[in-house]
Write a structure and sequence with these properties.
Distance between the termini: 27 Å
Shape: elongated
CATH architecture of the largest domain: 3-Layer(aba) Sandwich
Radius of gyration: 24 Å
Number of strands: 16
Strand content: 25-35%
Order of helices and strands: HHEEEHEHHEEEEEHEEEHEEHEHEH
């Protein structure tokens, strides 16, 4: 593994930042203290321009190299936490009840902040670096909000890169996908309205629970029997809400769930079939049935040239044998996809290990592995060194 000495020297300071951020987590669009912390540090480093409030609570900084050049590269980290009560017992555990950095965004933020300090001090490149600290990745579409606020109009870049820690992979490894890395996400809510009655006399009402139960089973056929097995897709019903008493048939039942796909035509077909089934089951069971569909994040799809470049830089840090090229993608979602729709770029997974010991993303006992900090910083700075080597 090749970690520059200047990066190694930053590790104690960056570790302290990471643990500070972990102790003070904030949910999407509430990252006010995080925003202030980042802005103060970036100004202290001497960034040429620091902008706050982009996308609500996002922070963007511009760092110019000391050699002339018109090229620019964007580096993005997400900064928000999750609504989880922390159970790690760490000395730096969350001090905000019901808030926790359970996805490693504290690590992502600290690594990019450390890279920004190194770049602001050395400035040994030709052109500009735009460091992007994005709010509300966890369902709030903060990337989209930043783009709507004119992120790439105010700070134009040729390419943009993102990173996510991956506990399932060993520390000191990377994985770069060919094409899709993360799935597109859609939310569905199905409302079934029947007629409440006494549970001992169901013939006097219209039972929406029976319709809901049958519908949940039927919806799975869309994936298991109507979708090409080679075309990855998931349809999960994750909530059923109906009734409050053991002897009352309720008036309504509500189903909630998610659809995950990689292709636009697959997504449209599945949503269309859900709509058809909801209407058909409403008629068959005599209930009023309505589908509410909320589009989520598009698939996160790497651009070929930037995918290869990002993997090459990763290989320079950890060795070619420790970079997995074209692993299976994840059915999880990621709003970095919005940025990749506007600018060529790529999204890489960085192994931090610990999966076998329970270090699982979105878990109350998860904690980012601080041993990964210099590896991530070396990748970020390596991208800049290579991309802006000659202006």
């Amino acid at each position: 593994m090749r970690i520059p000495a200047a990066i190694e020297a930053l590790v104690p300071e960056v570790t302290a930042w990471r643990q500070h951020l972990h102790a003070h987590p904030e949910l999407g669009y509430e990252e006010h203290a995080t925003q202030a912390f980042l802005a103060d540090k970036l100004k202290e480093f001497g960034a040429d321009e620091v902008v706050t409030g982009m996308g609500g609570t996002g922070v963007v900084a511009l760092i110019r190299g000391r050699r002339p050049g018109n090229r620019a590269i964007g580096l993005r980290a997400d900064i928000d936490a999750l609504p989880i009560e922390e159970l790690t017992g760490k000395p730096y555990a969350s001090t905000n009840p019901g808030r926790m950095h359970a996805c490693g965004h504290d690590g992502h933020t600290a690594m990019l902040l450390g890279a920004a300090k190194h770049l602001a001090v050395s400035r040994d490149f030709a052109g500009s670096v735009v460091v992007i600290f994005q709010p509300a990745e966890e369902g709030g579409a903060g990337a989209k909000r930043m783009l709507e606020d004119g992120l790439f109009q105010r700070f134009p870049v040729e390419v943009v890169y993102g990173l996510h820690n991956w506990p399932q992979m060993p520390l000191g490894t990377f994985a770069m996908h060919q094409g899709p890395a993360m799935a597109g996400t859609d939310e569905i809510r199905i409302e079934l309205a029947g007629k409440g009655c006494h549970a001992a006399m169901p013939n006097t009402g219209i039972d929406p629970i029976v319709a809901a139960a049958q519908l949940v089973s039927a919806l799975q056929n869309i994936i298991s029997r109507e979708t090409d097995p080679m075309d990855r897709a998931v349809l999960s019903i994750t909530a059923i809400n109906a009734g409050t008493a053991f002897n009352v048939v309720p008036d309504t039942a509500t189903l909630k769930g998610t659809v995950r796909t990689f292709r636009a035509d697959t997504r449209e077909r599945i949503i269309g079939r859900i709509r058809q089934m909801v209407e058909a089951f409403g008629q068959a069971f005599g209930v009023r049935a309505e589908l509410h569909h909320r589009p989520g994040y598009p698939p996160t799809i790497n651009h070929p040239e930037q995918r290869d470049f990002g993997a090459e830089v990763a290989a320079e840090v950890v060795g070619t044998e420790n970079v997995v090229r074209d692993p299976l993608p994840s059915m999880g979602g990621e709003d970095f996809s919005f940025m990749l729709e506007q600018v060529p770029g790529a999204y890489i997974w960085m192994g931090i290990g610990g999966f076998e010991e329970g270090r699982v993303l979105h878990n109350a006992r998860y904690d980012f592995n601080d041993a990964a900090l210099p590896i991530g910083m070396a990748w970020w700075t390596g991208l800049v060194d290579r991309h802006l080597a000659a202006g």
